[in-house]
Amino acid sequence: MSQLEINTHISVRFNQELESLKNSVLAMGGVVEQQLSDTLNALKTNNAGLAEKVALNDMQVNSMEIQIDEECMRIIARRHPTASDLRLVMTIAKATTDIERIGDEIERIARLIAKSNVPESDSFKTSMQVIGEQVLEMLRGTLDSFARVDLDSAMLMYKSDQDIDALYKELLSMTITEMQQNSDDLETWLEVLWALRSFERIGDRCKNICEYVMYLTKGTDMRHIAIESIQSKLVN
Amino acid sequence: MLKLFEHSRKPIESIPLEDVAIDVKNLNLRFNGKLVLDDINMIIPKNKVTAFIGQSGCGKSTLISCFNRMNDLIHGCEVTGTVRMGGRDIYHKKENVAELRTRVGMVFQRPNPFPMSIFDNVCYGLRLQGVNERRVLDEAVESALKEAALWSEVKNRLFESALNLSGGQQQRLVIARALALKPEILLLDEPTSALDPLATLYIEELINALKTSHTVVVVTHNMQQAARVSDYTAFLHEGKVVEYSDSDTLFTMPKIKQTEAYITGRYG
Fold first, then answer.
1. Which 41-100 residues of chain A touch chain B by CB within 8 A?
2. What is the value of ipTM here, to two decimals?
3. For burial by CB atoms within 10 Å, which of A101, B42, B47, B171 has the most?
């Protein structure tokens, strides 16, 4: 967030508070990124123990969300941030909610793996792995664009959600076909559907964070508008 | 669980005795029979910034003036109760008030430099105490001006008139004059109300730096300022302390409805 020049206030304490707030949300993002990486490893290696550990570790993410929210509120009440400082605090508060929800989606996937309920089908496991890796890459890129307040990278990540949506649809139709052929194991397949949905939702959450990065730098709200409008707003 | 932020709320009730700079008990103050401070009971923690907020006439300046007995100078002032510093009641009849005021410095709303040089302003109190050795005065002036974050701006014009300084610089000079006497406690009575926003921020930053070696009590009618600079805040109304707590709590979740109304601008 060097572009925002958060270290240039007369108040050294305010500088420190914003720096610490920024670092905390990046630390939270780092924990969630590791959670997703561990989940994919657990899926690949059938490691139910690792998946269980990931699911339990979501408590840490929840605790971080509460602490960051409280700090945002404290800074607003005591520092009365304005302009880019206010946008930064609001962005962090909103991004924290999305990161926490990403943690919840990862927990859901990890619980499925921990119960060893992933269907044996190799093609299916590979497909889960493929969407998982793609989502992990998007999450990494998103957090990186947030850390560097990099508009170009945020836009790139924003667009990559379309690929994830397309892959999700493909896997969804594949899963429905499997469900029709294995109707005696519907419960497992329903859980798989939820897990796939979770991967897709992580993509949506990353997209939200990309919108916040754009808002932070341009001061324009990019939510609920078409990608073409976003591109034209970024140019202007 | 991982702790993300170092600071934590320390309730005023949890301050141990050894960290108390001022202990006020059953303090009542009357001007010509009229009750102005009504049964004040509070502690001021050491090496922290404590702010008093409240409407004009609520008694905050009167209360701060009790801490170095400035009210003694007002005719018709009658004080009961105790104000202890270092275990000693400063209202005891044997208290040396002149010595008390070197331990408890005070700065007022309007910068009031004396019509003399910057150097002479800063060492005015020391000279009154009989310190005249040039080397000692030089060191004291430099140290006090550095502590007041003014040294770099005036070091090449120490013997120019203090009246040539800007308002913000004059206020920091007055703070330096108080600091030259090495007070344990610094009382600031609306120190920035006559200053522009930028000069205000410099004074606030100075207040934050001063607490490492001094206990600071600041009276302000600017709630935002209290929120920015203070560790603890007391809200006063009609001579009573309505609520007193750590500033994080007071400005995010005050317990008393009257405080909530005041700090959110719903008062009256």
1. 59-60, 63-64, 67-68, 71, 73-74, 77-80
2. 0.81
3. B171
Q: Does the CA dihedral A16-A22-A25-A27 come out positive or negative?
A: negative
Token pair for B48: 């922290």
Best mutation target, B2, B3, B4, B228, to test chain A (most A CBs within 10 A) = B4
Cα–Cα distances in Å, from A49 out to A53, A104, B121? 6, 18, 73
Going residue by residue through chain B, which has 268 residues, state the pLDDT in tens, using 9 for 90 and above.
788 887 767 899 999 999 999 999 999 999 999 999 999 999 999 999 999 999 999 999 999 999 999 998 899 999 999 999 998 999 999 999 999 999 999 999 889 999 999 999 999 999 999 999 999 999 999 999 999 999 999 999 999 999 999 999 999 999 999 999 999 999 999 999 888 889 899 999 999 999 999 999 999 989 999 999 999 999 999 999 999 999 999 999 999 999 999 998 887 4
Pinpoint the alpha helices (H) of A4-82: 12-45, 48-79
pTM for the structure as a whole: 0.86
Could you tell me which residues come within 8 angstroms of residue B146 by beta carbon, excluding any fewer than 6 positions away? none
Name, in order, each residue with C-beta under 8 angstroms of A218's C-beta and a sequence gap of 6 or more.
A151, A233, A234
If interface means Cβ-Cβ distance under 8 Å, which residues of chain B face chain A? 1-6, 198, 201-202, 204-205, 208, 224, 227-228, 247-248, 251-252
The structure tokens listed for B47 are 């090496």
